[in-house]
Amino acid sequence: MTRRLHVALFDDAQAVVAAARALRAQGIDVLDVVSPHPIHGLDEVLGIPRSRLTWVCLIGGVTGLALGLWFQYWASATSWPLNVGGKPFDSLPAFVPVAFEMTVLFAGLATAAAMLARGRLWPGRRARPELEATTDAGFVLIVARSDAAHEAEDVDDLLRGYGARSVRHELEEGR
């Protein structure tokens, strides 16, 4: 199936949000918005669900905490118990700093790994040529038209009516 893409370049973030809201209200698919910074309220307009990355971070942190506590207990009370001044082998207050650092380390590593995996950013992957204008303060709205319910000129006029600086057309073959 071939989809016709309209790639519109905007100068204002609020104009992008308004254009995306109007396009979605008319039943036109908004595929993506490319922006040099996050735009408040855009997730709700595009219908993007809340991220599950916080759960990945929590699971990584709990794993780090458990491993940190287990390793310290194993090292001090099971593998190599030393009687130092009559102190207990399994002193939890002594384990807190290392357990905290392990929690932060594992949470950070799990979050970074999940972001790289979800974004398909693995080593050796070639970058696609992106839209250069977005690095300078431009905002790009990518709209898909797969049926004849909306004419290309109507979509272009709507995008220009909301302040699009330029609109170009591309074809996307197959999905």
Please outline the major beta sheet.
4 strands, antiparallel
Number of strands: 4
Mean pLDDT: 85
Cα end-to-end separation: 7 Å
* Unreliable residue stretches: none
Give the class from helix and strand content and strand pairing.
alpha+beta
Tally of alpha and pi helices: 5
User: What is the N-to-C order of secondary-structure elements (H for helix, E for strand)?
Assistant: EHEHHHEHE
- Output the CATH topology of the largest domain: Alpha-Beta Plaits
CATH class designation of the largest domain: Alpha Beta
Going across the biggest sheet, name each strand in turn.
2-3-1-4
* Assigned CATH architecture of the largest domain: 2-Layer Sandwich
Topology:
Blueprint: E1 2-10, H1 13-25, E2 29-34, H2 42-46, H3 53-79, H4 92-118, E3 139-145, H5 152-161, E4 164-173
Antiparallel strand pairs: 1-3, 1-4, 2-3
Helix pairs in contact: 3-4
